[in-house]
Please model this.
Amino acid sequence: MKGLRFQAGATVPAFSLCLLLAAYALAADAPRKPATVKTPLGLLPLVWPADNPYSPEKVELGRYLYFDPRLSADGSVSCASCHSPKYAFTDGAPVSTGIRGQKGGRSAPTVINRAYSLAQFWDGRAPTLEAQALGPMVNPIEMGNGDHFSVVDRLKGIAGYREMFQKAFGSEEITIQKAGMAIATFERTVLSGNSAYDRYKAGQKNAMTASQIRGMGVFFDKAKCDQCHEGINFTTNMYANIGVGTDKPEPDVGRFAVTKDPKDWGAFKTPTLRDIDRTAPYMHDGSLKTLEEVVDIYDKGGVKNRNLEAKMKPLHLTDQDKKDLVAFLKALNGEGWQQIKAPERFPQ
Ligand code: HEC
Ligand code: HEC
Model:
């Protein structure tokens, strides 16, 4: 994988950095392909699904498909229209705009660190990234294709793609499942780590400011945000009702639509907080513009409703606590995705 190089933590002494670079150079000369992608500081090694293992060719095909507007019915919308590197793989808008300017009801989540997730969508209705990738293509307000056959037919007519499928899958035959597998493989390389917080944890004590260090205390101890936002990707991957949007006339039922279990009414998947400073506006409905607004909602104990999560309690944060908490959230800005660019031209 050219272009996927991550900075080692700055605490690594210079001589071992040289060793590391020498090892890289040797590895680059070795004939075998890398079996995976190196993850930035703070993340776990990637685990690839047995039925869709990593290959650089698949990542490359996936990247082309991800950025190619010809996946939509009228050639106007690509995955990147709503999950753009420009906005840390979101669209920077409260809700997304799809084909023919149609607006959806939910905010586009980031594609960053999806490799570490269990289920996809705010309500978790897609079990895998492979399955998820096929949904938008036939969603009438996203990419607007009548069915998947029309997408496959369009791709089959592009010689350059036939060649890329051959390289990625060992056969020119194009299927929608293979397209989903390639896109998912690409998405698993969209990573964020090596944030100020990761470097601080790795021993570089000046990586975070005094305010961010205090904010870390608010996050883990006083506000216990890690009851839900825990681990390397700052999420339990579980669903919770924190109440945002329940005060609308027709609230989004969230996870309830999938399970039909009343305890899931108004519950949404706990999102990652990595690069959160770069993915405003916030929440499933994009209703909160700033991190300050988010922190205020939590300070009040969420938005009261008939199914509010029991963990949501007023926090009694001071103004200083709030400022520090926001500063800490900004320490989660990372790297590992900025090198990913749209292809300069698409296969013909
Ligand atoms: C018109 C805008 C739009 C387009 C085009 C679009 N998405 Fe999305 N995407 C969304 C929205 C909105 C959601 C959240 C929907 C929900 O949860 O019900 C979403 C959810 C996702 C998720 C789940 C993320 C998570 O945290 O659960 C992934 C992954 C994703 N999209 C990838 C893609 C891929 C791959 C494509 C292209 C094949 C694509 N999207 C096309 C708007 C879009
Ligand atoms: C009970 C579980 C829970 C706790 C505790 C919790 N969160 Fe969340 N958080 C969620 C869920 C669920 C969402 C998504 C809700 C929605 O979209 O309506 C969310 C969303 C967010 C978002 C917006 C993410 C995005 O991409 O839009 C931020 C920021 C956030 N939480 C920060 C915090 C902070 C800071 C704390 C501690 C003060 C905290 N959370 C405590 C479950 C929790």
In short: Residues 66, 77, 79, 81-83, 96, 98, 104, 106, 108-109, 111, 114, 120-122, 129, 132-133, 136-137, 142-143, 183 surround heme C (ligand 1) (CB under 6 Å). The chain has twelve helices and two strands. The longest helix spans residues 14-29. The longest strand covers residues 239-240.
